[in-house]
Amino acid sequence: MAEAEPLLRAIDVHKRFGEVEVLKGIDLDVQPGEVVAIIGSSGSGKTTFLRCINLLEEFHQGEIQVGGERIGYTAGTHRRLGEAAVAAQRAKIGMVFQSFNLFPHMTAEQNVTLGLMKVQGKGKDEAVAIARRWLDRVGLAARRDHYPYQLSGGQQQRVAIARAVAMEPKLVLFDEVTSALDPELVAEVLAVMQDLARSGMTMLVVSHEMLFVRAVASRVVFMDGGRIAEQGPPDALFTRPKSERLSSFLGRFHGVFR
Description:
The protein is built from nine helices and ten strands. The chain is of the alpha/beta class.
């Protein structure tokens, strides 16, 4: 049986900030329903790669496709698409950030309904029904009328997740979504992500939560110096690293991989 077409395909992606090349030729395929975790030291290019996929950063060489559609640039050229076309593509790719980026003057429900109405053109009743369904899914049905300042960090991040997935994106990107949280709030956010993974959502996750990565990821990608240095199933990568660089990186997480 032939393998499905990748939902995400990155081909030789390069990105520079001035003279500094931070992505040095990224090649990565992600299949529908796959949960791929990206690990690596700070400065290895993980977040920059996610931001290129979601068109928050322009890249200078290569190609990114989502659902077979070239992202950000016209076919056969490196000429950027117009803003309306970019916005339409971005709407198909959900992203959850380290900072929650909620609108402080809007309730949890209003934060989720905004994109449904403004971007997808849904009526208020339909948008509210979708928002309430997702806020219930992330355990916040009782907090839907609360403003961000009335919510804990973990609750705010769960609202941000609900806002991203309510748009029914093809792919959801998670960028260190627990790094701004107190340790006791991390588990509630990871539990929501684990539930989404079980439901078959295609996810690309940058994380330092190695127990979560090992439990949930279908595949782990280790980035080092702007390149993919190693990748494979979590158990193989964590217990039998092939490179000294990965072995050294994993050594920081004593006890996690026994």
